[in-house]
Design a protein that fits this description.
This protein has an 8-stranded mixed β-sheet, with helices on both faces. The chain has 297 residues and is α/β, with parallel strands linked by helices. The two termini are 23 Å apart. Helix 1 crosses helix 11 and helix 2 packs across helix 3. The protein has 11 helices and 8 strands. Strand 3, helix 1 and strand 4 form a beta-alpha-beta unit.
């Protein structure tokens, strides 16, 4: 069964953001923060909260713009630095000055930024299918395969994408979770589906605004995106022990994004799951838990 999960907890942060979070385990034990991506919410980490709540204080917030957390109206409020700040302030609110950060997808994008900016706050960084920002920027700028794989990002950035995603009872979002239309997804049971629908019905604009606020998207005629960025790779070093779990059957984020990762991280280990898709956290929760457990040791 695992540890009991308590949700409907709220943190009012000094930056004005109100974050909803779920937790398992005892406050005072080492903190593990689990950060979801799009189009998900804290519940992505249900199996992890149950597992790690046994010997940690395991906490999974809804990121700003998602589910029960605050949803700022201003697009600029969805820039990565503000979401990094939310996580920093949440940890402090919970009474911790150092923790383990586990993250997937957009949560992973934020977590890379967090580790680069605030390494002193992290014991370890554990990333699931989320590319390092410098390598992702390079791939979006130079790699036609990646530009094609990430084409959906420009669709999401466009006006009205949230209405399109909500149409026909969230048909497109379900297709995204259902292996991007490749194959049926056993984990997306009627019970899980109901939970996701309850989250989506609260609003999709916040989640989509992560794409709109980011310069990382395939370049277009009207928006150069990564082509206009002048970034120094030295500014993207990760000084935190880092473990990466990668489902290699991810359509949007091919395994080529792992190439060169060890140039940025001194202490890195990559676990590849050849048959795993972008949704490996749901597909093989016990395996993901085992890998995380191994990384903590």
């Amino acid at each position: 069964m695992g540890a009991t999960i308590t949700d409907n907890q709220f943190a009012d942060l000094p930056n004005g953001m109100r974050l909803h979070y779920a937790s398992a385990g005892e406050k005072g034990k080492p903190l593990m923060l689990f950060v979801h991506g799009f189009p998900e919410f804290w519940y992505e980490w249900e199996a992890q909260l149950k597992e790690f709540g046994s010997d940690h204080f395991a906490v999974a917030p809804d990121l700003r713009g998602f589910n029960l957390s605050g949803m700022p109206a201003n697009l600029a409020d969805y820039k990565a630095k503000h979401i990094v700040d939310d996580l920093r302030l949440l940890a402090a609110h919970l009474g911790y000055d150092k923790f383990v950060l586990v993250a997937h997808d957009w949560g992973g994008a934020i977590a890379w930024n967090f580790a680069i900016a605030l390494p002193q706050l992290l014991h370890k960084l554990i990333i699931v299918n989320a590319p390092h920002p410098y390598l992702f920027m390079q791939a979006l700028a130079d790699d036609p395969e990646q530009q094609k794989a990430s084409g959906y990002m420009n669709w999401l950035r466009a006006e009205g994408s949230e209405e399109a995603l909500a149409k026909d009872d969230f048909a497109l979002l379900e297709k995204l979770l259902n292996g991007m239309g490749q194959s049926p997804t056993p984990w997306f049971t009627p019970e899980v589906r109901a939970k996701y629908h309850a989250c989506w019905v609260r609003g999709l604009t916040g989640g989509v605004n992560y794409y709109r606020a980011s310069p990382l998207h395939p370049p277009t005629d009207s928006n150069a995106g990564p082509l206009k960025l002048q970034l120094n790779p030295a500014d993207f070093r990760v000084k935190v022990p880092t473990r990466v779990v990668w489902g290699e059957a991810d359509i949007a984020l091919p395994k080529s994004l792992l190439n060169g990762l060890d140039d940025f991280i001194d202490d890195l280990k990559i676990e590849r799951i050849p048959e795993g898709s972008h949704w490996i956290v749901h597909e093989q929760p016990e395996r993901v838990n085992r890998l995380i457990r191994g990384f903590l040791q």
